Write a sequence for this structure.
């Protein structure tokens, strides 16, 4: 081997390693893979082995924060659009936030209604199970609040379960010391 080749190889390999490492550390900043809401048998990002250095909802137990949704009705009207605000309220010593959410019929686990992003902070991805998931985007991680719309099922669908998992990340570039929160809300159809 020529010394020039060895020199090029010795420079090339560390650069490749750094690019791989940087990509790995930011792998989910644009949103996790589908299916980590914690509902209907799914794990959360904590239970799937990623952000698991702290127990699920450890921040809630310590009074640091929670994942909270406002704007959901106690009873939904078929086909009506609701403006929802989701907040990961843990802000102390946190730099980035994320979440994933799904709306499903309680009895069957089928998709319930339609989730609609209203700005660049959220996006829809569809899982292998055909369920659409609403989650953060790379543009959305700098804030702990996310706004979106939910269009209730147009016909009689029964109770709807909204499962959400939220992340309050320290910005350290690894999944360690990130707090994962999960909650579930059930909304019933309006009775006449």
């Amino acid at each position: 081997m020529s010394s020039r080749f060895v020199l090029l190889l010795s420079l090339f390999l560390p650069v490749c390693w750094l690019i791989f490492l940087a990509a790995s550390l930011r792998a989910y900043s644009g949103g996790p893979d589908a299916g980590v809401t914690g509902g209907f048998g799914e794990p959360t990002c904590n239970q799937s082995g990623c952000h698991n250095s702290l127990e699920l909802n450890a921040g809630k137990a310590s009074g640091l924060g929670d994942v909270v949704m406002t704007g959901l009705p106690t009873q939904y009207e078929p086909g009506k659009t609701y403006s929802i605000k989701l907040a990961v309220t843990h802000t102390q010593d946190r730099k980035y936030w994320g979440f994933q959410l799904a709306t499903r019929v309680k009895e069957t686990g089928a998709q319930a209604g339609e989730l609609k992003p209203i700005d660049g902070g959220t996006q829809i991805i569809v899982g292998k199970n055909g369920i659409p998931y609403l989650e953060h985007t790379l543009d959305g991680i700098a804030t702990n609040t996310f706004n979106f719309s939910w269009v209730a099922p147009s016909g009689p669908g029964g109770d709807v379960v909204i499962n959400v998992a939220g992340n309050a990340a320290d910005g350290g570039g690894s999944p360690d010391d990130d707090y994962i929160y999960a909650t579930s809300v059930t909304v019933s159809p309006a009775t006449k």
In short: The two ends are 83 Å apart (CA to CA). The CA atoms of residues 63 and 144 lie 17 Å apart. The first strand starts at residue 67 and ends at 70.
